[in-house]
Amino acid sequence: MGLPVSTDLILVGVMPNPHDLDIARLLGWYRIPLRSAPKLIDVDHLAFYQTGAFGEEQRWRIQFAAAMRGHELVRRVDLFRDQPDHPHAHEEYYKITLGPLESLPHPVLAGGWKRLTFLYTTGARLLSATTLNDLVIRDEERTILWRTLRERAVSGGRYAGQPEFSLSLEQQLQFFTGIIKETGTEWLVDSFD
C-alpha cells in the first residue's frame, strides 16, 4: 500500500488529538461523524491534519497518510464501548478502515490556515506540497477532480445522473464536500457548527 501515487484521490481530514492518531496507528481506523462527513468518502488515501492539540512541534500540519481499505456506518458507542454516556454516543459515524500510517516525506504545514474540515486533493499535490494552500485544486484540475468525484459516486451507487438543480462547478464541489446541502427545493450552505 505505502504512500499515495500521483493519481490517487486523497481526502484530508482532521486528526483532532494524539489519542485519535494512536487509534489510527494501532487499531487501523479513523472516524468521521455522519452529520459532518463529506458526501464522498470512497477515496484512495486519507491524509490527517493535526490540530493545535498536538503541541508546538507537531500541530497545524499533515504528517501522515494511510490507504483506505473500507468503511462502515456505526454508532459512536460501538467504537467507544467505555463511553456509553457520551453526548454523541448514539450518533452515526463512518468507521474508515485504514492501512498502515505512512509518514510523508516532509510535513505539509498549515501556513495561514489553522482550521480545516475536509479537503479533496491528489497524491501528486500531497507529496509535493509544502503548505495546505498547495493542496487546493484549481483551474482545469477542478474539472478533473469533479469528474473523479462523480465517477466514484456513480460506481458507489450514490449518484443518479444530473442534479435536479443547475450548479456551478464550484457549487458542485461544495456539494460533494458537504458545504452545500440540498433541502428538496433549494441549496443551503452548512455552517459546520
Write the topology of this structure.
Layout: E1 9-15, H1 18-27, E2 29-33, E3 45-50, E4 61-75, H2 76-79, E5 92-98, E6 102-109, E7 118-122, H3 123-128, H4 140-155, H5 169-176, E8 180-182, E9 187-189
Parallel strand pairs: 1-3
Antiparallel strand pairs: 1-7, 2-5, 3-4, 4-5, 4-6, 8-9
Can you walk through the features of this model?
By secondary structure, the chain is α+β, with helices and mostly antiparallel strands. It has a domain at 9-135: Hypothetical protein (Archaeosine Trna-guanine Transglycosylase, Chain: A, domain 4). Helices cover 23% and strands 31% of the residues. The chain has 5 helices and 9 strands. The chain has helices at 18-27, 76-79, 123-128, 140-155, 169-176, and strands spanning 9-15, 29-33, 45-50, 61-75, 92-98, 102-109, 118-122, 180-182, 187-189. The strands form 2 sheets. Strands 1, 2, 3, 4, 5, 6 and 7 form a 7-stranded mixed beta sheet that branches. Strands 8-9 form a two-stranded antiparallel sheet. A hairpin with a 4-residue loop joins strand 8 (180-182) and strand 9 (187-189). The longest helix has 16 residues, at 140-155. It is globular, with a radius of gyration of 17 Å. Residues 159-165 and 187-193 have low confidence and may be disordered.
Q: Quick recap of the structure?
A:
By secondary structure, the protein is an alpha+beta fold. The protein contains 5 helices and 9 strands, in the order βαβββαβββαααββ.
What features would you highlight for this structure?
single chain; 193 residues; alpha+beta; Archaeosine Trna-guanine Transglycosylase, Chain: A, domain 4; seven-stranded mixed sheet; two-stranded antiparallel ribbon; 5 helices; 31% strand; disordered C terminus
